[in-house]
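To: structure desk
From: M.T.
Subject: fold request, one chain
Message: Could you run this one when you get a chance? Sequence is below, nothing fancy, just the single chain.
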Amino acid sequence: MKLLEEPLILLGRVVTKLPLMLFATLFMERRSIGELPVFDF
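Reply: Done. Structure tokens follow.
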């Protein structure tokens, strides 16, 4: 049961952390783009 438990915990951590990191990067990116109008691609 331990063999099945660890990947599930790891998967749970990835699933919970990924959206948070994505949101954080989007939020910071939007702020930096708003503050610094030098970056226009």
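Reply (cont.): The mean pLDDT is 76. Let me know if you need anything else for the meeting.
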